[in-house]
Amino acid sequence: MKRLNSFVSYVKIIAVALLLALNYQLFIVINSFAPAGLNGIATMVQYKTGFSIGYMSLIINIPLCILAYYLIDRMFAKRSLVFCLVYSFSYIYFQEIGFEAFQYNANGHDTIFPVILSGVISGFVYGICFRNNASTGGTDIVSKYISKKNPYLEFFWVTFTLNTIVAICSFFVYATPDGEGGLTYDYKPVCLCILYCFISSYIGSYIIKGSKSACKFTVITSHADEISKDIMENLRHGTTQINAMGSYSHGEKQMLICVVNKHQIVDFKNILKKYPDTFSFFENVNETYGNFKRIK
Question: How far is CA 26 from the centre of its chain?
Answer without folding.
Answer: 22
